[in-house]
């Protein structure tokens, strides 16, 4: 007979107690009678400093802790006043004047004034990181003037009608706090990596870049709360769970309230289950297979056109379980100036053969390399669809998975860029130039410029459109640019995958804006409607 | 003995320098541009150059190496190009989490592996021994990321017995940092609820991390025990009527423990390396996870820092085992 000693029994009970005491919570977290929303994604937030870095998760936290002069909201995207209550521009689009609201204050109580705005833009330009590229060609630190405590003027070096589309992406920091923590001449960069100097709706409680970021709602946020003060959250926790399967499990268990970066199957199953909602919105992230236009068979435009007409476009939609739409232009639909380009290539083998017959490889017989980012499932499956599509043309495809840094490094130079690369691009602003710039020689060396397309006519059209102050004329110019790009076929224009999130049905206040980056949500408007 | 100790310490220093050379070379031949990656996808060439200058990546490679080694000599691991913070600070922040996990896994490996190995030897070639062999082989063969996900989906998602990932429930604040090991700190603070929470979070990753180690300890211990149990002095002890369990657990086990001890030392360093997979699956914010996220971002200073730290730990563990050997085994001492 087995004897259980008293000590053994006690130890066993203690162990069981430990496990049950730490069992999962099956509903949202609370602080007093207010709730905490838990958002989970796979990407860390290495840096809080809004002038140094941005990606979807980083910007979601930055947008919550800091305010900009204006903000992107709604679908189609609009720019609404935020720290600035109004603005005006000169006829030549070179001088921009912003009038600030009078009641905004930083989390430490300091007022948000024109000097703070001037300092923040100067800091962004001087650090020359993160957001600097958006304005550095047009704005010098000396061109920013705090006219009076509530007026800021930007004197640009040249006409820049798209200036306002970048304003929502420049956040305002408190100069007093930042400079008080300056080390050497770093303008507070080291300090602002993990510390809060913002005026946004949330302040930082806990910042652990690799695991959890906890935000507390600012009780008396100067802009007020859209869901009413009684319904506002106590705070938000962004929890980093790197694998999609445990992330989904955490949502199903009620450990988290919102998840992102899941597989299409995950979303479909969640949408069919009770208690969950899956927002399913048309995105602006373009997917393209860029082709090296400088060497090998893809340097020949007819080969590129043959490939584009051989591609099985239906497969792109099937891979996303229907939650995607084919691109009808190099521009995503939500970008101003978008036109549906007539004659966008679709699968047509006869046409494909005809294009190929105009080349020295009339019967195919060559191999192309298709590179995608290691670990990403969709581009791998798209590669397989492409492999099947090219077989009738007797073109072989070598599908290669490479780490992102390797792929970018290879693509930076025309002689090392692969024949074909799968690339997702998310526009950061509403400015059509962001997308048009993908086809300008200035894109060479960037990951979206791996086609290394050089076309003088197109390049000058893009430059002219960039500085055209008349909006109607400008948008018309972009129509021509889109048609020209399709004509040059530097890539297979793929699809716009829908943006999806898995949410508990008690999460309310979600407002979709396509100009947020992939998984990013505006946490400000969210609340929990449950007891 | 002193000569022996000095020799071992000098050899360890030499190995460390070798490791520095290797990690530096590997990091610099990897085809990626850390400055371009850190500057972001939209960065202009001028912005990339700013980052390159700031981190000294514009200097010739030999100069970067000399600078890296001289910085290391002053205990400076450099700065992460992604987080912009000092790698030394970040290592100090993440290492305790890893050490806590490894210590727990090692404890589990020894506490389960040694008795199972001992019992396998006693019941050699009987059904129990075969069963344990299957267990041990799976321990070595199962890939950690797969095993981790399966445990996570079974015990966390389906049975809802344990949390899926992380170190603490998201709503619980971490205990006041003393050692930064949550289990120890919560005990020091007398906070039993946090201790229970931290313990529940550590169970699954510790099991996954300990499994291969447990299996090796088990097999080595079994092999040694089988050999020792057939030794003359065991026969003599039996003939003297010493109780069978006393013979196994005291006389035989003590003599069979020498190679097991070596195995434990080796496994400690090896386990630190395995945390890369386990920490990624369980989102355990330790040096393994730090190394992975840095490597993905092409951020080499943290990767080199983690490699050196693991290497250093490995060497120290080996040194300690070597010295313990010298102390435990008189023959080895005599040979010096």
Question: Can you tag this structure with a few keywords?
Answer:
heterodimer, A: 531 residues, alpha+beta, D-Maltodextrin-Binding Protein, domain 2, Dipeptide-binding Protein, domain 3, 3 domains, 8-stranded mixed sheet, 26 strands, B: 336 residues, MetI-like fold
Detailed description of the structure:
Chain A is an alpha+beta fold. Chain A has 3 domains: 29-66 and 200-281 and 502-531, D-Maltodextrin-Binding Protein, domain 2 (3-Layer(aba) Sandwich); 67-175, D-Maltodextrin-Binding Protein, domain 2, CATH 3.40.190.10; 286-497, Dipeptide-binding Protein, domain 3, CATH 3.10.105. Helix content of chain A is 29%, strand content 22%. Chain A is built from 16 helices and 26 strands. In chain A, the strands form 7 sheets. In chain A, strands 1, 2, 11, 12, 13, 14, 15 and 24 form an 8-stranded mixed β-sheet that branches. Chain A has a 6-stranded mixed β-sheet with strand order 18-22-17-21-19-20. In chain A, a hairpin with a 2-residue loop joins strand 8 (144-148) and strand 9. The longest helix of chain A is centred in the last third of the chain and has 18 residues, at 471-488. Chain B has 336 residues and is mainly α. Chain B folds into 2 domains: 33-76, no CATH class; 90-300, MetI-like (MetI-like fold, Orthogonal Bundle), CATH 1.10.3720.10. Chain B contains 14 helices and no strands. In chain B, helix 6 (127-141) packs across helix 9, helix 7 (144-158) crosses helix 9 (192-229) and helix 11 packs antiparallel against helix 13 (300-328). Chains A and B meet through helix 1, strand 13, helix 7 and helix 13 of A and helix 2, helix 3, helix 7, helix 9 and helix 12 of B.
What is the fold's blueprint, element by element?
The complex is a heterodimer of chains A (531) and B (336).
Chain A lengths: L5 H16 L7 E3 L2 E8 L14 H10 L1 E2 L1 E4 L4 E4 L2 E6 L5 E6 L13 H14 L16 E5 L2 E5 L7 H4 L4 E2 L2 H6 L8 H4 L9 E7 L3 E6 L17 E6 L3 H10 L4 E2 L4 H9 L3 E2 L2 E2 L4 E6 L9 H10 L2 H7 L4 E3 L22 H9 L8 E8 L3 H14 L4 E8 L1 H8 L8 E6 L6 H5 L19 H11 L4 H18 L2 E7 L1 E2 L1 E3 L2 E2 L18 E2 L3
Parallel strand pairs in A: 2-13, 2-14, 19-20, 19-21
Antiparallel strand pairs in A: 1-2, 3-10, 4-5, 6-7, 7-9, 8-9, 11-12, 12-13, 14-24, 15-24, 16-23, 17-21, 17-22, 18-22, 25-26
Chain B lengths: L1 H28 L4 H6 L5 H10 L6 H13 L13 H36 L4 H15 L2 H15 L23 H7 L3 H38 L2 H8 L4 H39 L4 H10 L3 H29 L1 H6 L1
Helix pairs in contact in B: 1-13, 5-6, 5-9, 5-11, 5-13, 6-9, 7-9, 7-11, 8-9, 9-11, 11-12, 11-13, 12-13
């Amino acid at each position: 007979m087995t004897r259980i000693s008293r000590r053994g029994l006690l130890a066993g009970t203690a162990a069981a107690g430990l496990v049950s005491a730490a069992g999962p919570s099956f509903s949202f977290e609370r602080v007093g009678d207010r709730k905490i929303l838990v958002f989970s994604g796979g990407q860390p937030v290495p840096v809080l400093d809004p002038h140094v870095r941005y990606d979807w998760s980083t910007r979601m936290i930055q947008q919550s802790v800091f305010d900009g002069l204006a903000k992107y909201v709604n679908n189609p995207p609009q720019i609404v006043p935020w720290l600035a209550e109004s603005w005006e521009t000169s006829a030549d689009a070179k001088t921009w004047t912003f009038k600030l609201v009078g009641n905004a204050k930083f989390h430490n109580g300091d007022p948000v004034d024109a000097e703070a705005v001037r300092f923040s833009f100067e800091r962004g330009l001087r650090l020359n990181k993160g957001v600097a590229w958006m304005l550095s060609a047009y704005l010098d630190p000396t061109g920013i003037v705090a006219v009076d405590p509530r007026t800021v003027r930007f004197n640009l070096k040249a006409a820049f009608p798209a200036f306002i589309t970048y304003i929502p992406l420049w956040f305002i920091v408190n100069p007093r706090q930042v400079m008080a923590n300056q080390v050497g001449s770093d303008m507070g960069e080291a300090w602002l990596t993990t510390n809060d100097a913002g005026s946004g709706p949330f302040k930082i409680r806990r910042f652990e870049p690799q695991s959890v970021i906890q935000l507390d709602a600012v009780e008396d946020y100067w802009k007020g709360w859209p869901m009413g003060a009684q319904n506002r959250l106590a705070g938000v926790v962004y929890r980093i769970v790197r694998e999609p399967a445990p992330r989904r499990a955490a949502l199903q268990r009620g450990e988290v309230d919102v998840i992102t970066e899941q597989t299409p199957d995950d979303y479909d199953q969640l949408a069919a289950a009770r208690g969950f909602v899956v927002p399913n919105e048309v995105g602006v992230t373009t997917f393209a297979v860029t082709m090296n236009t400088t060497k090998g068979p893809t340097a020949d435009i007819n080969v590129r056109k043959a490939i584009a007409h051989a591609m099985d476009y239906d497969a792109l939609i099937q891979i996303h379980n229907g939650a995607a739409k084919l691109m009808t232009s190099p521009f995503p639909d939500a970008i101003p100036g978008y036109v549906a380009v007539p004659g966008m290539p679709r699968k047509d083998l006869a046409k494909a053969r005809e294009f190929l017959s105009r080349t020295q490889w009339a019967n195919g017989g060559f191999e192309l390399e298709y590179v995608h980012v290691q670990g990403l499932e969709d581009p791998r499956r798209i590669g397989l669809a492409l492999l099947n599509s090219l077989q009738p043309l007797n073109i072989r495809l070598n599908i290669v998975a490479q780490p992102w840094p390797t792929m970018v490094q290879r693509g930076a130079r025309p002689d090392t860029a692969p024949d074909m690369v799968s690339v997702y691009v998310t526009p950061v602003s509403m400015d059509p130039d962001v997308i048009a710039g993908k086809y300008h020689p200035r894109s060479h060396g960037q990951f979206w410029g791996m086609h290394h397309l050089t076309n003088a006519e197109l390049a000058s059209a893009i430059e002219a459109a960039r500085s055209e102050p008349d909006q109607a004329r400008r948008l018309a110019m972009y129509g021509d640019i889109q048609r020209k790009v399709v004509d040059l076929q530097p890539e297979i224009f793929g699809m716009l995958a829908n943006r999806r999130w898995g949410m508990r049905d008690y999460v309310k206040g979600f407002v979709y804006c396509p100009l947020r980056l992939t998984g990013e949500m505006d946490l400000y408007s969210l609340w929990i409607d449950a007891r | 003995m002193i000569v022996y100790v000095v020799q071992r310490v000098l050899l360890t220093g030499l190995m460390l320098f070798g490791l520095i050379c290797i990690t530096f070379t590997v990091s610099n031949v990897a085809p990626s541009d850390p400055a371009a990656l850190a500057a972001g996808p939209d960065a202009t060439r001028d912005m990339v150059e700013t980052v390159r200058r700031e981190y000294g990546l514009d200097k010739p490679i030999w100069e970067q190496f000399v600078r890296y080694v001289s910085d290391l000599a002053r205990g400076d691991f450099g700065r992460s190009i992604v987080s912009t913070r000092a790698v030394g600070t970040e290592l100090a922040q993440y290492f305790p989490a890893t050490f806590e996990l490894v210590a727990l896994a090692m404890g589990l490996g020894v506490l389960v592996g040694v008795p199972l190995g001992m019992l396998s030897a006693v019941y050699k070639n009987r059904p129990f021994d075969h069963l344990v062999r299957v267990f041990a082989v799976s321990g070595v063969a199962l890939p950690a990321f797969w095993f981790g996900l399966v445990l996570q989906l079974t015990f966390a998602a389906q049975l809802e017995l344990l949390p899926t990932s992380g170190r603490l429930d998201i709503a619980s604040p971490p205990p006041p940092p003393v050692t930064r090991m949550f289990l120890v700190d919560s005990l020091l603070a007398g906070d039993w609820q946090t201790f229970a929470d931290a313990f529940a979070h550590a169970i699954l990753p510790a099991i996954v991390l300990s499994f291969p180690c447990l299996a090796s300890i088990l097999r080595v211990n079994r092999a040694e025990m089988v050999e020792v149990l057939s030794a003359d002095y065991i026969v003599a002890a039996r003939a003297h009527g010493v109780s069978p369990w006393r013979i196994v657990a005291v006389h035989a086990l003590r003599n069979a423990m020498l190679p097991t001890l070596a195995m434990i030392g080796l496994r400690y360093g090896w386990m630190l390396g395995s945390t890369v997979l386990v920490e990624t699956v369980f989102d355990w914010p330790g040096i393994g996870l730090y190394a992975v996220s840095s490597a993905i971002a092409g951020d080499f200073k943290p990767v080199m820092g983690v490699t050196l730290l693991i290497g250093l730990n490995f060497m120290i563990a080996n040194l300690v085992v070597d010295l313990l050997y010298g102390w435990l085994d008189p023959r080895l001492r005599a040979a010096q």
